[in-house]
Amino acid sequence: MPADAAAKGMKLERYASGGAMLLRRVASGKIVSASSHLLFRATVLATLALVFLFTFHYPSLLSRSFTLSGAGAGEGGAAAHASHRSLLMSSSAASVYGGAAWEKEVRRSAKPRKDGGITVLVTGAAGFVGTHCSLALRARGDGVLGLDNFNSYYDPELKRARQRLLAGRGVLVLDADINDALLLEKLFDLVSFTHVLHLAAQAGVRYAMEAPQTYVASNVAGLVSVFEVAAKHADPQPAIVWASSSSVYGLNTDAPFSEDHRTDRPASLYAATKKAGEAIAHTYNHIYGLSITGLRFFTVYGPWGRPDMAYFFFTKSIISGEPITLFRAADGADARRDFTYIDDVVKGCLGALDTSGKSTGSKSGKKSGPAPLRVYNLGNTSPVPVTRMVAILEKLLGKKANKRIVTMPSNGDVPFTHANVSHAAHDFGYRPTTSLDAGLRHFVDWFVDYYKLKLDIPKIAKVAGAGKPSSSSKKKKKAAAAMSASS
Ligand SMILES: O=C(O)[C@H]1O[C@H](OP(=O)(O)OP(=O)(O)OC[C@H]2O[C@@H](n3ccc(=O)[nH]c3=O)[C@H](O)[C@@H]2O)[C@H](O)[C@@H](O)[C@@H]1O
User: Fold this and answer.
1) What is the pLDDT of residues 422-456, one digit of tens each?
2) How far is the CA of 460 from the centre of ligand 1 (A)?
3) Active site residue 284
4) What is the CATH number of the domain that holds 210?
5) Which of 57, 76, 97 is the last residue of a domain?
6) What angle do CA 216, 209, 268 make, to 5 degrees?
């Protein structure tokens, strides 16, 4: 009690009502007048009415409140998390979650359908690679829970369509952001995930010049958010497999790119954030004993692909007759990419999950020994000039592209990529088998179907053995795999 108040014979009383704090001064030893009683009652009633109105109009805010107080964080921690969230999360991720029905759905989706199945949290599950991996995991009986923030980097409706596709196979994809640490904690409280397949990221090489901060928020802060929860909150810790990128090789000129080559000269901020991710992975493995595998994807393409990628928007432009711009390296050579078909990449992702090994740390901060820290190229091992990719599309679509050839602008692009996949082949039998002709055939079929186009696709193109490489191409692939395995 304040000394001056005591001296005046006054005391302070606190009333808590419906979350509102009322302060009342009472004159000690004096009779409180009837009018002040009336005023007090009116104030209490008005407060209760306001609380009732707030509850009625803003149930979503209240339903989220458990995440700010009930996930084991203290008041200060919750406030810090809250401000962290508002800084980093996209507004579209401000989702409503919680409640018994929601928890039941989460558990159902994450439950393996077969004995010995793994339980995987897939971030970026409504993305291109995320959707295909989630479908493949579910198809073999594993438990899968997805999350995605459905941002508008490219058409969110395509992401919603992928979400519906997954829902049809029993996979729930939550509207949630990886920077929402409290939600991640909640999910690990509900489910003992054995693995995290972390694919959520800000993708795209050239867009990094336009929106640098989104790359930092997703690829650096978001990655740390996932590692933090896995290292310090999950019990037991899961093994983590995450998406790095072929772009980490940057200005490296040794080919084919091997995991042992230099990756300290990134050409774009995108590449730099992926390289930073690999360094951050080292730290979390070293300190907390997290089992971490980084996968360097090489220009992955296929059905349900990304509209921001060249093969996708070139297809659209060829169909509509709009011009396309082809980049040529400064030395006059066509840009080349080791285009890798989605089904091959999915096999690589599942192989990496299955061989990831266990994390060795615990919530208490102690680790029982070193945990696996791995990085693998997942490419096709046969780079193709972008002009050739366009020629295949022209043949498939039966229409010539309106081409404009320019010198590659200095916007983070690299002139070529070429993967050596010998480590992935050795450790989990990774062997890409899909030629660019066959893979683009699948893509065009999907594209025409998805956008309900009335196109007369030339029959001749259908012969190209889509998806099933001919025996000669099989032999060629085998030889290539053997060559890269011995290099
Ligand atoms: O492998 C990777 O690590 C990366 O692959 C792709 O990046 P990129 O290979 O640049 O794929 P696209 O943007 O589809 O470009 C493919 C090729 O087309 C060329 N291109 C692109 C755009 C264009 O207008 N014209 C053009 O000739 C590029 O120079 C490049 O050689 C993805 O967009 C990245 O998210 C991924 O991490």
Assistant:
1) 999 999 999 999 999 999 999 999 999 999 998 87
2) 28
3) no
4) 3.40.50.720
5) 57
6) 75
